[in-house]
Amino acid sequence: MLPRIRIKGATIVTMDPSLGIIESGDLLIDNGKIVAVGRNLGSWAVSEIDGRGMIAMPGFINGHIHLWQTALRGVAADWTLDHYFGVLIGKVVRLYTAQDAYIGNLVGALDQINCGVTTLFDWCHIVNTPAHADAAVDALKDARIRALFAYGTPMTLFGTKEPHPVDAVRMRKERLASDDALVTMALAIRGTDFAPGTAEADIRLARELGLIASFHVACAKHGPRPQSMQNLAQQNLLGEDINLVHANFLTGDEFRVVANSGASISITPEVEMQMGLGLPPTGAALAAGAKMNIGTDVVTGVSTDIFTQMRFLIQTQRALTNDGFHKRETMPDKLAIKVRDALELVTIKSARCFGLDDRIGSLTPGKEADVVLLRKTDINMRAAADPIAAIVLHAGVANVDTVIVGGNIVKQNGRLTYGDLSRRLAELERSSERLYSGFASDASAA
Ligand SMILES: [Zn+2]
C-alpha cells in the first residue's frame, strides 16, 4: 500500500476541462490514485508536500523515444538520416550487449523522470536477442517510470522480409500480460516504408496479442512509399491500434484517412528538422483532426527534454503559418496554435493516442497519480500570470522539483530518488566508451 499524500497550496493545472486551473489548490493521493482535487481539502495525509510556489500538472507523456541510445548521446549531432542509418545499422547495433541495453534504458528512463516525464513510449529496436528485450524491460521497471515497451525487430532486420521476432509472444504472455501495470506492451514494427511486405503480418501479430502497432512512415521525401494510407485503410491496416511516427510527407488526403481511422501520429519536431526527415506536419494533422502526440526520439541526435520539443512544435507551426501571411503580403491576424494546444499534446491528447486517457493525462480524481511540480519561484518563472504559458514557453528541466509516478515519489526537491544513481551513471559511461571504441572511425566521419 502506497502512502497517502497531500500536495497542498499549489497552482493546479488539471488539464481536465471540467476542473480547469485551481489556485491554492490541494491534491490528494491514496494508494497511487488521485482521490480529490480542490481547495482546502483538509488534513488527511500521511505525508504532505508543500505545493506553495509550485505549479502542479499531470506528468508529461513522451510519445516516441528510443531509450537504448542513451550511451551514445549526441553522436549524430551533425549527421543526416542516411549517415545515422549507415552507422547504427552497419556498426553500432551489433556491438550492443544486453547489459548495454539495460543501462541505456535505465539511465534514459531516469533522465526522462528528471525532465518531468512520467509516461513514455519506448520504441525498442535493439532486441538483438530475447535477453536484450528482457534487459530493456527490467530497466523500465527498475526506473519506476510508466512505459509502453514497444517490442521491435533488431535494426539489422530493417529492409528485410524476416518476420517480427516471435519472442514478442513470450514477452506478452509471460512478462507484460497486464494492460493495467506500470509497464505495458506495444509492438514496434518496421512498417510499409522500411520493410515493404512485412506490415500486414506484423500488424496481424500485434492484433493477435492485443497491442498497439507503431511504425515510422513518410519521413523522407524521396524515400520509398510503397503504400499510401488509402492502401492501408483498404486492407484494414489502420485504426485506433496503429501509431504512425513522423508522417512528414503524408498528403492532406492521407491525413484525413488516418484521422478517420482513429490512428495516431507521433511528431518529433527537433530531429525531423535536424536530420532532414521533413517539416513537422502539425498543421496538416490538426487540420485533419488526427490524434497526435509529441516525442523526443533519438538522444543520439537531439535533446531528451520534452519542454524543448513542445517549443519546437509550437514555434515551427507558428512560423509556417505566419509565413503564409507574409507570402500574401500581409501580417498574421492570429497565431496558428495556442500554448494550451501544445500542452494537451504532451498530456491528455497523448494519453488518448495510446488508449490511456482513462488512467493518465489529467489530474482527475480516479486517475493514476502521475504528477509533476514545477517551481514558479525560480527566476525564469517569476511574474508569469498564466501558468500554461509559463509551462510551455518559459519552464525547463531546472524547474522540475517533484515527480510522482503512480503515487511513488521518484524526484523530490529537484533530485531523483533512485538509490544508486552514481554507480549507474558510471556504468553508462563505461558502456559508452566500449561502444565508441567499436566504431570510432565512423563516429568522427561527419
Ligand atoms: Zn524513432
Architecture overview:
- The chain is α/β, with parallel strands linked by helices and 446 residues long.
- 37% of the residues lie in helices and 22% in strands.
- The protein has 16 helices and 17 strands.
- The chain has helices at 81-95, 98-114, 130-143, 167-175, 191-194, 199-209, 229-234, 252-261, 269-274, 282-288, 306-327, 339-345, 348-353, 387-394, 421-438, 440-444, and strands spanning 5-13, 21-30, 33-38, 47-50, 54-58, 60-65, 117-124, 146-151, 183-188, 213-217, 242-246, 264-267, 291-294, 371-375, 400-405, 408-412, 415-416.
- Strands 1, 2, 3, 4, 5, 14, 15, 16 and 17 form a nine-stranded mixed β-sheet that branches. Strands 6-7-8-9-10-11-12-13 form an eight-stranded parallel β-sheet.
- Helix 2 runs parallel beside helix 3 and helix 12 packs across helix 14.
- The N and C termini lie far apart (53 Å).
- The mean pLDDT is 95.
- The structure holds zinc ion.
- The site of zinc ion has 6 residues, from loops.
List the SSEs and their pairings.
Elements: E1 5-13, E2 21-30, E3 33-38, E4 47-50, E5 54-58, E6 60-65, H1 81-95, H2 98-114, E7 117-124, H3 130-143, E8 146-151, H4 167-175, E9 183-188, H5 191-194, H6 199-209, E10 213-217, H7 229-234, E11 242-246, H8 252-261, E12 264-267, H9 269-274, H10 282-288, E13 291-294, H11 306-327, H12 339-345, H13 348-353, E14 371-375, H14 387-394, E15 400-405, E16 408-412, E17 415-416, H15 421-438, H16 440-444
This protein binds zinc ion.
